[in-house]
Amino acid sequence: MRTDFSKVHFQIMWNRLISVVEEQALTLVRTAFSTSVRESGDLSAGVFDSDGHMLAQAVTGTPGHVNAMAVAVKNFIEVIGEDNIAEGDVYITNDPWRGTGHLLDFTFVTPSFRDSRLVGYFACTAHVVDVGGRGFGPDANEVYEEGIFIPIMRFADKGRLNHELINIVRHNVREADQVIGDLHSLAACNEIGHRRLMGMMDEFELSSLEALRDFIFENSRLATLEKLAALPQGSWGNDMTVDGYDAPVYLKVRLDISSEGVHADFEGTSRQSSLGINVPLIYTKAYCGYGLKCALAPEIPNNHASLEPFTVSAPEGCILNAQHPAPVAVRHVLGHFIPDTVLGALSKFLPDVAPAEGAGALWNVQISARPVAGTQAAPGERLQSAEMLMFNSGGSGARPTLDGLNATAFPSGVHAMSVEATEQSGPIIVWRKELREGSGGAGQFRGGLGQVIEIAADDGHEFWIKAMFDRVEHPARGRQGGEDGMPGIVRLDDGTVMKAKGRQKVPAGRRLVLKLPGGGGFGNPAERSAEDRARDLRLGYIGKDEDK
Amino acid sequence: MTHDGKPVRLGVDIGGTFTDVAMEIGEELFSTKLLTNYSAPEQAILDGVLRVAKNAGIELGAIDIVIHGTTLATNALIERRGAKTAFLTSKGFRDVIEMRTENRFEQYDLNIVLPAPLIARDARFIAAGRIGASGRELEALDEAAVMTFAKHVAAEGYESVAIGFMHSYVNPAHEIRARDIVAENAPGVSISISSEVSPQMREFERFNTVCSNAFVKPLMESYLNRLVDSLHGIGATCPVFMIHSGGGLISVETAAAFPVRLLESGPAGGAIYAADVAARHGLRKILSYDMGGTTAKICLIEDFSPKTARTFEVARNYRFKKGSGMPISIPVIEMVEIGAGGGSLAHVDGMRQIRVGPESAGSEPGPACYGRGGNRPAVTDADLVLGKLDPDNFAGGDIALSAESSEHALLAEVGNRLAMDARHAAVGVIEMVDENMTAAARVHAVENGKELGEFTMIAYGGAAPLHANRLCEKLGIDALLVPPGAGVGSAIGFLRAPFGYEAVRGAYLRLSQFDKGWVSDVLEGLEREAVAVARAGARDAELLIERKAFMRYVGQGWEIPVGLPGTALDAMGLRSAFETEYRRLFGQPLETLDVEVMNWSVKAESVSAPRQPVERVAAKHEAPSVGKRQIFDAREAGFLDAQIVERADMRTGSMVNGPAAIVEAETTTIVTAGYAATLQADGCLLVQRKETAQ
């Protein structure tokens, strides 16, 4: 009777494999130093078969690494060489083109052996605190200025740590202890995954993952193709212009839908920039795959087979397939606009699925606070230098049957940090962080509101920001008659207009004022229900924006 | 007072469906279960008290103490039935409770709806004035704005006010001043301030906590007053104490001022119950597992103390998913709760995967087998089809179960879609729900750095003993205890709870800038607060003081709780305590980094009477069997001939070899083929893996 229940058994094992990678990811969140990992889940973790095909991925990760890591493991196997892979090895890289798009992300791959036989791999990726160079900002002209570059190599060789490598890293980054701590966290996280997998294989009496892999891939492929078969076949295009650094960036996509898959081609997109907003193809694929998947097959777990029908191409040298040595440090800004671009094309044949455009890119505020020479701290305080990072989100686009989400990240999966915790970490004061009234695009369904943030240095200090803001010139567009959201604003409290990209100073005594963009509306505003209008008025959602 | 010289203690637990009453006279237990009365919750208590007193043959005046726990506050938050409440906050921060953490709790659903803020935007008001991170006043409080707010509150008929200002956990001066102004200008309105309700760093959690407190305060105050009055009315004039979320007892007055401390107090009682059993049996590593009609709760209990935390989330409205509820920052017994109960419904998703819960059939219409109009398969239906339940002897024979209806429902929703017969579908449903609970337990263990293989499970709640043994198999656990009275476990747990209170405060310290005087001021202040609350019940009994610092390396995002020695502290001692704990959880400490303390806590609680240790009893004789039935055994992957044993027929040392079902009025304990059960001297069933049993 044992074999009769195999179908159920495989389902259980598949679920277990997903919980194995969840545990793997959790270990990383608990021990990481990097703000974006610990506060915001900017990481990914997954288990792969012995050929490097992804079997399961933690759902806690941010979509930026979806697909990217899936391809990365094959790169590792190729570079290290199948015959050179040994028990106790751990591999490392931060190659933007073979990892996840910028030097700040490290990817670790660990082969998993059972009874001396290779059964699969664990991989994980996380954004670390620093990689040297200019730091996290868009101002470099080549990737060489953006920090240390570690090609695919051994972090541990048959259980022995590569101390030379660690020493090189130590001498090339700021906050070296924290960065090294993050590298150890990444290695430990794969190790936890391996241990749990062995426990699972003991329990289910498995000597290899092959039968389970076949079950997972077969089911995922069928389920994905079933979803695609329900779509109309043909080609649809969309384009969108966003601010870029020094010139607007034109994003263009064509989707080809067939019964075998969806292909997104970015032919016609702007050429790569001389500044760090460029995107390596691997990261373009990640966000493109995310946008398509959450609209077309949201409930199918990510793995090699469920991602395979989604393919992406972009001409070499375009800003979404930037070539080495292009600078790529803030590749997330354009990366975050890819889902809106793709969803716009989807809306042409699935008008009831795709939301309107939203604020898109996060408004990350990277702050360097410094004492002003020759001044005094406030009574009871001390002068100090500090590096701080805040994540902030504008409004998301209205949905076909729902308003957009106020001040909520899409497509990124990050969390904002507590203002009180931020103020504990350095000499700045956040005077304001609240919803920006009137910033959501009107429509039958209203775009999500952006937010207003005001930041000043504490007495005796001044600060610099590395601005990486967008949708200041090009607001989120409404859909099906919905109006555009309000564009963003970057300035000082005395009215001085600031640039939306690049390193700039906020003098002592001044406040930096950020007004984050709202999401686009969906449907004709005249169709909005009286009840919803009354609610918007009562709650002040459509109150006057001071800058309208 | 007292009965024949023995103390008479009464525990009362109001749950979502049932109100449980447990009366203990000396060692003897009398209990009853009644349906919860939503419009007058105290009425079910009065009925229950009268009933158990009659069974026990005592006068109501003989009751020495009533200990009460309730989900009323939780339900009021979930259902948003509370007072008309206004929130006053710092200028620039009106939307903190609405903006939440600015993320989506589910990445792949384009249509998620975030939980609405507890206090709507038009009831949230601001006043200028600002305290900085160190407690320094950056800007004076705009008292005129507070005055205007107070007048508006009075004019608009708000019943309750919450006040939460930035950094008030370091310096509460502005909040206190604002409270005075409101009290003066809006007389009679109920006021809660965040520096008293939850003085912890992180504005979203603290503001949400003070708003929740204000929201339920008038309701809970009135309920508690009515309860005390009506108990007095029937002659029970003894003191009434409340069990709080952290598992200790507080006075009714404290509970009425800080009702947010009552959230999840019923499940906390369950964990205390399990901890008491653990102490009797001398078991230092316990996984408690509580499974009722709609949810399962899992808690780690080590060294006889349930695991605690400083924050938790209530009212998760999206498949119990983390982030889809409201954060509450108060000390709690930490548990994971998932939508897996006897009533949880099964279906097949787009991946042809069987899914179970969180939607529940509840008691109406109930699982298909109840025959009350339910036609979707629930966990109970699958348990029935697999032989785990006796259709003629469910809930003491009160409800006759129809296996045919269960099979029908399983085929319609699961079997036909997966080309399986009803039995295979049932196997799929049960294995999936067991796997879900296993996964929750495993993740909870990881979050706490534990290996579950070394743990013993204690199971209670109506549905837990049916599933517990299988969970043990999946988790690699060798021993399981099913204590007597498992059906009213939480109410019994209330009777074991100490008088105690935990005070918590955010106060930032880098060890490199250690200041001895400052640290002792913080800890002494917390100790005074905790002791004052605990003394209300403990009187002059000895109090146990437990001090903790919540620490991390500078740059990390997650603090770990570190127990502090009772002796004087210095930076070295703090650092080494932290590193020991860090090594235990995560491995190698990082020597070159500075360490910071974010929060401090002090708990004061009465020392509980030493428990009578229970010697482990080996199997002496086989328990008499009353029949046989085919029961599915997942590990053996087939139906096996299992014996049926009445728990009442077992005596100390009676042994039952799996596969077997041990039945009693409120539940059934399934013993799988790989395990055997032996009744212990205190009435607990000890279920052990055969090769380890002796």
Q: Can you give me a brief rundown of this structure?
A:
The complex is a heterodimer of chains A (548) and B (694). Chain A contains twelve helices and 19 strands.
Could you please describe the fold and organization of this structure?
- The complex is a heterodimer of chains A (548) and B (694).
- Chain A is an alpha+beta fold.
- Chain A has two domains: 2-220, no CATH class; 355-548, no CATH class.
- Chain A is 27% helix and 22% strand.
- In chain A, strands 2-1-5-4-3-6-7 form a seven-stranded antiparallel sheet, sandwiched between helices. In chain A, strands 8-9-10-11 form a four-stranded mixed sheet, covered by helices on one side.
- Chain A is globular.
- Chain A starts with 5 loop residues before the first helix and ends in a 9-residue tail after the last helix.
- The longest helix of chain B has 31 residues, at 203-233.
- The model of chain B has no long low-confidence stretch (mean pLDDT 89).
- In chain B, helix 12 (422-447) crosses helix 13 (464-475).
- Chain B has 16 helices and 36 strands.
- Chain B is of the alpha/beta class.
- Chain B folds into five domains: 8-77 and 222-262, ATPase, nucleotide binding domain (Nucleotidyltransferase, domain 5, 2-Layer Sandwich), CATH 3.30.420.40; 80-218, Rossmann fold (3-Layer(aba) Sandwich); 344-432, no CATH class; 500-606; 627-689, no CATH class.
- In chain B, the strands form nine sheets. In chain B, strands 13, 14, 15, 20, 23, 24, 29, 32, 35 and 36 form a ten-stranded mixed sheet that branches.
- Helix content of chain B is 31%, strand content 27%.
- At the A-B interface, helix 1, helix 5, helix 6, helix 7 and helix 11 of A face helix 3 and helix 12 of B.
Q: Beta-sheet strand percentage of chain B?
A: 25-35%
Helix content of chain B: 25-40%
Question: How are the strands of the biggest sheet of chain A laid out side by side?
Answer: 2-1-5-4-3-6-7
Q: Radius of gyration of chain B, Cα only, in angstroms? A: 26 Å
Q: How can the largest sheet of chain A be summarized?
A: 7 strands, antiparallel
Q: Can you tell me the CATH class of the largest domain in chain B?
A: Alpha Beta
Number of domains of chain B: 5
Count of distinct strands of chain A: 19
Helical segment count of chain A? 12
What oligomeric state best describes the polypeptide chains here?
A: heterodimer
Mean pLDDT metric of chain B:
89
The end-to-end span of chain A amounts to 72 Å
